[in-house]
Amino acid sequence: MNPFCWNENHAVGLPEIDADHRAPLRMAYDEIESGTVRDWLDGLLARLAAYAQFHFESEEALMRRTRFPEYPQHRREHESFAVTISCLRTLSRSECADVTETLMEFLGSWIEQHTCGEDHRIVEHIKRVEPDIHELRNASKED
Ligand SMILES: [Fe+2]
Ligand SMILES: [Fe+2]
Questions:
Q1: Entry pTM
Q2: Is residue 109 situated within a structural domain?
């Protein structure tokens, strides 16, 4: 699977979350367009680390606000993403490993399993506990 390719199957249905989910793919494109492989890889890993921090904080705040029962497990997955990116960056900088392929496989599997799986569960939960808010957001999207 090409992790740089976004399609509507990846969407969870909440515009602000979907915009966040598209961000790492845009980052990858931007980094590939510039500099050497080594530079773009380090730049991409740095941007993914920053992305993880802001997106996960936002998603976790949403889970806490709506009392999502699977919050602890979901948060652990976010933590493991951040740890993996940090390890890959350390490995990449040590000059003894090209982590490009590992990173691509990791991102592909993250989108398939976390974004398309676990993140959908948050939205299903919100639809159940706050159906009015969800409908309001969809209505404002159509305006
Ligand atoms: Fe997410
Ligand atoms: Fe998530």
A1: 0.76
A2: yes
